[in-house]
Amino acid sequence: MLSSAAKRVAPMPASSEPAAIEMVGMNKWYGSFHVLKDINLTVRRGERLVICGPSGSGKSTMIRCINRLEEHQHGQIVVDGVELTNDLKKIDVIRRDIGMVFQHFNLFPHLTILENLMLSPIWVRSMRRWQAEQTAMHYLERVKIPDQAHKYPGQLSGGQQQRVAIARALCMSPKIMLFDEPTSALDPEMVKEVLDTMVALAEDGMTMLCVTHEMGFARQIADRIVFMDQGEIVEMNNPSEFFSNPSHERSKLFLGQILY
Amino acid sequence: MKALSLSLQTAPMPGQIRVGALWRYAKLLFGTPLNAALTLLFGTMIVVTVPPMLRWLVIDGVLFDPDPNACRVAAGACWSFIYAKSGQLLFGIYPFDERWRPALVCLLILALLGWSVRPASWTPRLAALWVAALVLIFWLMAGGFGLIEVPTSSWGGLPVTLILTVVAIGVAFPVGILLALARRSTMPAIRIGTVVLIESVRGLPLLSILFVASIMMPLFLPEALLPDKFVRALVALTIFAAAYLAEVIRGGLQAIPNGQYEAAAALGLPFWRTQYLVILPQAIRVAIPALANTIIVMIKNTSLVLVVGLFDLISSGKAALADPDWPSPAAETFLFIGAIFFALSFSFARFADFLERRGLTAH
Ligand SMILES: Nc1ncnc2c1ncn2[C@@H]1O[C@H](COP(=O)(O)OP(=O)(O)O)[C@@H](O)[C@H]1O
Ligand SMILES: [Mg+2]
């Protein structure tokens, strides 16, 4: 019931779920270059958002503003009821609750897989060692590579590394997961194993924002698709509408390029 | 098993091996006109220099005879001087009856160094152990609290070299890390201050820094505030080493991709934990060869304290040579001291090599 209602009212879902992320009139500049122009976006808890758009349109910058890897200059970003400001303590608290998966994995090469996963539970959540190890093994099993626990990242394939990166984020029990093109650096045969992991996560009800050009995946899991171009949100719609009947010329052009 | 039996079957007769190997060496040494010329040149040099050297070192040398006159008549090296004077060479002018104290200090430092190179002992407790050991070392050397007091002006020899090396490098390393981080700071005041400090220290010869610390500081500091000469030299060495180590570590930091900082930030790791757990272990590993180089230079730089009147190994050697009862066998003495420096530097080089290889397997 809830989710179908959410899908009908696409741009700003009038669901009873509280907002996980709210961006209001958000703007960002790199020097004089206006990267993000008046972004308004509300993401409900449990919602799965896919963000797409041409390269350089500001997708990465937008999701990196959510955990303050980038700073916005104007407007508001509220995560879980907390507004993002320059308060460093607040930023660290917000980051604990947001997991992020990068295009190039960014695993820590000097630590084993297990140590990669245990690092922040121990040092940020003050978990006991044995407890952190238990959590780490639990998530390694969920991404189906418990047997690699004692290897170093450099000894794993790209697909395996990306699954480790997902598990590492999950070890912090985040409320929101951000994905920035998690499969674009992978060889084609490894894309599926990573997408399968993400589908499983979506089915568990995780709030997800995912920058990706994997349109099959978007169709399968997205509640809404956000299309960006030149720093603006051009269109926001549910997948079936977006794919079959895009309302903007720019979305049509983009879909034409990416689907064929 | 299979490979073994195969190689047994095809193994050539011993004679064949020798001929084959000989042929290979002959080709290597005389294969081209240039190689043949070089072989002849170096061969001649070896034939000309090695036998006289051996004759001087061993055959004509005085090995054990404790009588100084034996050295006067002998044509070779006077090694008995090294035995007879070993106490003075190693401990300088430290009071004779108290020599057990610097001897104990040397053993303590060497034992601790040996203990510290094992990866298994790299815990926070090791740092505490070193601090406790340093307190003990300074008590043993300086005395007080039940031991006869010995002023630093009477310290000398190996313990001085070891203390200067270990303390200067031990303190300079963390200070160098902080300077390297400060130099990359986004806060202009901190960054510029660090650049000025590092560049002025690097722009001055160590000798002039030592002179400033020991000769100029007394000119503008009142007696009561003036630290001991030994401490002043130690501080000068530390600052010098820290500036160089900072630049080497900064080189390592520059090799760390931005993604590492971003991943740590995304996990909620605060600044210092990110540095300590993620960035520095990688940066230092990258910088190991250059770090080892700088540290080895610093081990040998400690001998420069002799210009400000501290008695390190080399000054003790010179003092021992002044004994009128003996001919002064300077070459032997400096070979002996050189051997000690070589042992220290070479052991450290091996340790750095071990760290580097250990890092390779971890990637
Ligand atoms: N650190 C930066 N400094 C200046 N310009 C940047 C920086 N990062 C990104 N940009 C620019 O901002 C725009 C948006 O980048 P990005 O968000 O990475 O796009 P996308 O992820 O959609 O490909 C691009 O034109 C890019 O060149
Ligand atoms: Mg991008």
Describe this structure in words.
The complex is a heterodimer of chains A (about 260) and B (about 375). Chain A is α/β, with parallel strands linked by helices and about 260 residues long. Chain A contains 10 helices and 10 strands. A 6-stranded mixed sheet of chain A has the order 6-7-8-3-9-10, with helices on both faces. In chain A, β7, α7 (about 190-205) and β8 (about 205-210) form a beta-alpha-beta unit. In chain A, α4 crosses α5 and α6 (about 160-170) packs parallel to α7. Chain A is globular and about 55 Å long. The two termini of chain A are about 35 Å apart. Chain B folds into 2 domains: about 15-60, no CATH class; about 80-355, MetI-like (MetI-like fold, Orthogonal Bundle). Chain B is mainly α and about 375 residues long. Chain B has helices at about 1-10, 15-30, 35-60, 70-75, 80-85, 85-90, 100-115, 125-140, 160-185, 190-205, 205-220, 230-255, 260-265, 270-300, 315-320, 330-360. Chain B is about 75% helix and about 0% strand. The interface of A and B includes residues 92, 95 and 106 of A. The structure holds adenosine-5'-diphosphate (ADP) and magnesium ion (MG). Adenosine-5'-diphosphate binds near residues 30, 35, 55, 56 and 60 of chain A.
Measured as a percent range, the helix fraction of chain A is 25-40%
Tell me, rounded to a whole number, the average pLDDT of chain B.
Answer: 89
Please describe the biggest sheet of chain B, giving its number of strands, its sense, and whether it closes into a barrel. none
Average pLDDT level of chain A = 90
Which structural category fits the helices and strands of chain B? mainly alpha
Number of strands of chain B: 0
Which sequence of SSEs, written as H and E, runs from N to C of chain A? HEEEHEEHEHHHEHEHEEHH
Note the topology:
The complex is a heterodimer of chains A (260) and B (363).
Chain A: H1 2-8, E1 19-30, E2 33-44, E3 48-52, H2 59-66, E4 74-79, E5 82-83, H3 88-96, E6 98-101, H4 113-123, H5 129-142, H6 158-170, E7 176-180, H7 188-203, E8 207-211, H8 215-221, E9 224-229, E10 232-237, H9 239-244, H10 249-259
Parallel strand pairs in A: 3-8, 3-9, 6-7, 7-8
Antiparallel strand pairs in A: 1-2, 1-4, 4-5, 9-10
Chain B: H1 2-10, H2 14-30, H3 33-59, H4 68-73, H5 79-84, H6 86-91, H7 100-116, H8 124-142, H9 158-183, H10 188-203, H11 206-220, H12 229-254, H13 258-266, H14 271-301, H15 313-321, H16 330-361
Helix pairs in contact in B: 7-8, 7-9, 9-10, 9-12, 9-14, 10-12, 11-12, 12-14, 13-14, 14-16, 15-16
The structure holds adenosine-5'-diphosphate (ADP) and magnesium ion.
